[in-house]
# Entry
Amino acid sequence: MSHVDLATLVTIAGMTLISVLTRSFFFLSNKAWELPAWVTSGLKYAPIAALAAVVVPEIVTNGGQLIATWKDARLFAAAVALAWYFWRRGLLGTILAGMAVYLPLRLGLGW
Amino acid sequence: MRHREFTVGMREMAALGPGIAAWGVMTGVAMVNSGLDFVSVLVMSVFVFAGSSQLAALPLFAAAAPTWVILATALCVNLRFVVFSLHLRPYVMHLPLPTRLLKGYLFADLSYVLFTRRFPRPAHDAPGKAAQDAYWTGSGVASWLIWAISSLIGVAMAASVPIAWGLGFAGTLALLGITCSLATSRLRTVSAGIAGAAAVAAYALPLKLNILVAIAAAVAFGLLLEATGAKASRDRATAPVGDRE
# Structure
């Protein structure tokens, strides 16, 4: 806990601005234009693709290297979470069921 | 007066609360452990509202990197939001610019996904637009509140929550559930598989650019499969409840 650094605060303000500007990038201009139909059609794959791109490496890699052992708490937790999701469809249950497998395996067995 | 959809948006985001909160706590812990001063940690927790760019910036702050390097990193890590804003543009252009900027600030990965799941197409009539605006604000406010509060809890508990617990995995599980809820057609399922594989294959790219590569690959394959005689699976996809495109 050092003293407050003004330069750091300015940088953080800049990061906040970047959060706003990247997320509103295509909202900025008022000019009327229509997306080509194929872009609109293709963008419907973007949400699930973005999620899968975040989720899959978090489950099957360690810092980018594919995991080489089945003794990894994440694999079992993800399998149980998937099973729960397709059984019950609830998100909260999916998270809790997965963590109920993950934490004992990780903290108990060190997987 | 509060629109019904505001509450729906809040509730759907709150269902993901434990996952978002686990990430927020871990981000708070990481921020304290990075050696940033306390005020900066608080300001960052509350305002930046972009977990992956915060985590990417921490080692740079620790290494006393120049401001422009940190901002350029934040920009690259946030590039996927530019794609999302392209998708969301038709939903917000009836609003004045300041409102659009605020709406932009409020949406992140999960609000984007929940919003486009609930409203696959932009509304053209006033009641429809009001409903979409209200849902967006509701889910956005909920995710901002959950994120800020859980980050502050992480800051407060930094000494007692070891990173080794891997609580952040709850966030991954929340995303896994949402991913399944989006897999409403065979082509979408295939595109998720392609995105996952591409993200792993391109993981070595700096600044999380593998996510952009994965989105581009999945969109390209999705369009390609649509064009090349995937008619059968398209018919299957439109028949059941889910897919309204």
